[in-house]
Amino acid sequence: MAARVLLQQCLSARLQVTEAEEAAEYAEIQRGTLIYVCFCKGATGDIVPKMVNTLLNVKLCETNEGNYVSVLDLPANILIIPQATLGGKAKGRNMQYHYNIGKENGKALYAQFVALCEKEFALNCRCVEAGVVVRHGTYGNRQVLQMDTNGPYTHLIEF
Amino acid sequence: MAARVLLQQCLSARLQVTEAEEAAEYAEIQRGTLIYVCFCKGATGDIVPKMVNTLLNVKLCETNEGNYVSVLDLPANILIIPQATLGGKAKGRNMQYHYNIGKENGKALYAQFVALCEKEFALNCRCVEAGVVVRHGTYGNRQVLQMDTNGPYTHLIEF
């Protein structure tokens, strides 16, 4: 496994993107998908285009008619949340993170992932016309998050 | 795999427990752990005590001093959310749920899981004294959820 991603649908979400000691700033989205991302040991940049292609095209967003389409096709917003804890493995009463990528490599892959999502949204006419956005958390921060859902409709996708 | 569980820490959370057409009623907790549960095909009641033992004792709750203890030891509340979508597997642009348990068996295991969590909380003096609670969603419902976190601190545990 090179990466583990969790998807939750939201009506709105707000994530703090500043460090605890700074004045709070937030990344906010209205209706869309939360994408929690964790890269594992050995992951390289090759995996990122495949991840973005899958995540932006998998049909998990509900239309007003109750059908499911991709986030690009709805279109809806995305909020990307770095979430290293997703790579943890329970051992006895403790969680271990031996399979997680190192901080510098993880930060670089995360930046590449965010940039590619932003590019795909910018190239998609439907997204541009609808004004939907890509927002993201700050790698290494505590991810202070509020969300409001009409069903988190939680999915896990491993790469 | 018999079950997949996702854990998120929250400062507060509110889950609708009535059907859409009824007057809305909510299960609410203050600080604690959200436990999203999905049972897979072939799961039996034997797995439930092991799941509850692991989930209530794994050290994922942060104390005011920044240490990590179990939800029973903090102690904090839990909100159990049935989340069948967690068992989905991406195939092309679609999610498939071939590995999920049937509805009747899933409902029975979910009820057993909730009952055992409630029993463990009721037997734990620290939980009783602190007045922490077990709340849960209605199996088969759309899980309309709001949550506020100081870091969702998301973990996956498979059984």
- Secondary-structure-based class of chain A equals alpha+beta
Total number of distinct structural domains of chain A: 1
State the CATH superfamily name of chain A.
D-tyrosyl-tRNA(Tyr) deacylase
Rounded average pLDDT of chain A: 97
The neighbouring-strand order within the major sheet of chain A is 10-7-4-1-12
InterPro entries (chains A, B): Daa-tRNA_deacyls_DTD (IPR003732), DTD-like_sf (IPR023509)
Protein name (chains A, B): D-aminoacyl-tRNA deacylase
Catalytic activity (chains A, B): glycyl-tRNA(Ala) + H2O = tRNA(Ala) + glycine + H(+); a D-aminoacyl-tRNA + H2O = a tRNA + a D-alpha-amino acid + H(+)
Enzyme class (chains A, B): hydrolase
Looking at this protein, list some descriptive labels:
D-tyrosyl-tRNA(Tyr) deacylase activity (chains A, B), alpha+beta, EC 3.1.1.96 (chains A, B), 3 helices, hydrolase (chains A, B), three-stranded antiparallel sheet, DTD-like_sf (chains A, B), five-stranded mixed sheet, 24% helix, homodimer, D-tyrosyl-trna(Tyr) Deacylase, Chain: A, 159 residues
